[in-house]
Every structure is written in structure tokens, then in C-alpha cells.
Specification:
alpha+beta, YchJ-like_M, 4-stranded antiparallel beta sheet, two-stranded parallel sheet, 139 residues, 6 strands, 3 helices, SEC-C motif-containing protein, Nuclear Transport Factor 2, Chain: A, globular, NTF2-like_dom_sf
Length: 139
């Protein structure tokens, strides 16, 4: 699966910097999850995956994708910039093993100046104490 040309990892924010997902400081929000700690909720995993796109961390995206639906390869476009995340709704099933997160993510392509919004309802599964991205419906 390709999200553009070969990716270069961008520098991560400092622990006290605002988190790209908008959920607090990077060190207390997505930084811990990008460093390998399990996300406590599907929404937090969604936020960390948005942040991974923002900082160019394809390894985190791959590691948090459910093995049954993960692409064999993943490349990110270094020209793509993610400008903001809005969580619209997050629900977790009563069994605490399935969840959905509806979000809007604003982006722009640096060279062309083109802008857009990705609106998706993502599905997540919890296995062995970790949340995984399963798939999503883009509208």
C-alpha cells in the first residue's frame, strides 16, 4: 500500500511540545505509544496512528495494523503534511474487543498546495491486550 513516494521520517516533537493529534503534550499523549506502549483505547491508537502519519513513522503504522488486513508494504509521502485531527465519535463494544473511531484529518501537499480532509470510520480489534487498526470506510 502506498501513501506516496518513499518516506523520510520527520523529527518527532519534544516531550513537552504539543502532540500532532491535539491530545496534549507529545510525551504524555502519542509519544509513549509510538515508543511501544500499548494504547489504552482504540481512540488513543487512532490518535497515535495520525501522529505516525504526521511524523513519518511507517513502522508504527505497520506494527499497529491488524495482521489479517495489513498491507505487505507501506510507504509514506514526505510531501504530505497533516494539519489537524478531529475525533467525531468513538465507540467500544461491550466485550471491549471491538471499537470504531470516526475522525476527520486535514492534510495538505506541500509542493502543490492542494488541501483536503480525510473522513473515515475506522474499525479496531483488541488482541492479546493491544488494540489494532483493522480497516476503515472513507467517505
Amino acid at each position: 500500500m502506498s501513501f506516496g513516494t518513499a518516506a523520510e521520517r520527520r523529527s518527532r516533537p519534544a516531550p513537552d511540545d504539543p502532540c500532532p493529534c491535539g491530545g496534549g503534550t507529545f510525551g504524555t499523549c502519542c509519544g509513549r505509544i509510538l515508543a511501544g506502549r500499548p494504547a489504552p483505547t482504540a481512540e488513543q491508537l487512532m490518535r497515535s496512528r495520525y501522529t505516525a502519519f504526521a511524523v513519518g513513522d511507517a513502522a508504527h503504522l505497520r506494527a499497529t495494523w491488524h495482521p489479517s488486513t495489513a498491507p505487505e508494504s507501506l510507504t509514506l509521502d514526505p510531501a504530505m503534511r497533516w494539519d489537524g485531527l478531529d475525533i467525531i465519535d468513538a465507540t467500544t463494544a461491550a466485550d471491549d474487543r471491538r471499537a470504531t473511531v470516526e475522525f476527520r484529518a486535514r492534510w495538505h501537499d506541500a509542493p502543490s498546495g492542494q488541501r483536503g480532509v480525510l473522513h473515515e470510520v475506522s474499525r479496531f480489534r483488541r488482541a492479546a491486550g493491544r488494540w489494532y487498526y483493522l480497516d476503515g470506510e472513507v467517505s
